[in-house]
């Protein structure tokens, strides 16, 4: 990712977490639009390096004056995210074949474009994870020496195989999973 894009994303996330009022917090739509325009002006000026001291002072002043509403709106946002993730996990078992494929499966005639409303739970859960701000955890260094032998205290390949087999894993599981995913994603028109 380009450094300028990374900088803009960081600034945008920081400012949007402070200027986080919702449409319901305003009497009219015009007031809300003015609020959003002010927020975007601040983001633009900070990204472009224009009037940085004034913009930072404006952000700090807003943060001090609206600390209660910022916390309240952040809590509401977190609760909505929790509900979306719960709904996505709940619907994960229901996601899959819909519309045309289901109609053909039942033996009925399907209308054109009936199955175009594909419902997948994974993108919703992935989006929820992205908005949650959870950073990926980097892997540690590889536990091998120069000859690619396992370091002391780490399980060897045979130990991993024994653990996998004792947990119920079989060698044909990856193949079955790949076939299941491949046929589960086929769209029938």
From TrEMBL:
Pfam family name, one: MAT1
Species of origin: Chlorella vulgaris
The record's InterPro entries line, in alphabetical order, gives: MAT1_centre
Which GO BP terms apply? DNA repair; regulation of transcription by RNA polymerase II
| Top-level division of the source organism's lineage | Eukaryota
What protein is this chain from? MAT1 centre domain-containing protein
| Family annotation (PANTHER family) | CDK-ACTIVATING KINASE ASSEMBLY FACTOR MAT1 (PTHR12683:SF13)
Gene Ontology cellular component annotations, sorted alphabetically: transcription factor TFIIH holo complex
**Residue span, MAT1 centre domain:** 4-82
User: Transmembrane region positions?
Assistant: none
């Amino acid at each position: 990712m380009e450094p300028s894009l990374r900088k803009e994303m960081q600034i945008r996330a920081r400012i949007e977490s402070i200027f986080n009022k919702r449409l319901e917090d305003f009497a009219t739509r015009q007031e809300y639009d003015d609020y959003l325009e002010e927020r975007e002006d601040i983001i633009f000026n900070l990204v472009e390096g224009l009037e940085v001291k004034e913009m930072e002072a404006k952000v700090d002043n807003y943060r001090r004056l609206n600390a209660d509403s910022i916390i309240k709106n952040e809590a509401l946002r977190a609760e909505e995210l929790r509900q979306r993730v719960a709904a996505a996990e709940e619907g994960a078992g229901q996601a899959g074949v819909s519309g045309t494929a289901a109609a053909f499966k039942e033996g009925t005639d399907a209308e054109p474009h009936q199955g175009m409303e594909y419902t997948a739970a994974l993108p919703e859960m992935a989006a929820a994870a992205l908005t949650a701000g959870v950073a990926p955890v980097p892997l540690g260094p590889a536990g091998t020496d120069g000859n690619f032998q396992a370091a002391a205290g780490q399980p060897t390949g045979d130990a991993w195989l024994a653990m996998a087999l004792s947990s119920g894993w079989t060698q044909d599981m990856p193949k079955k999973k790949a076939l299941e995913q491949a046929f589960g994603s086929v769209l029938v028109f």
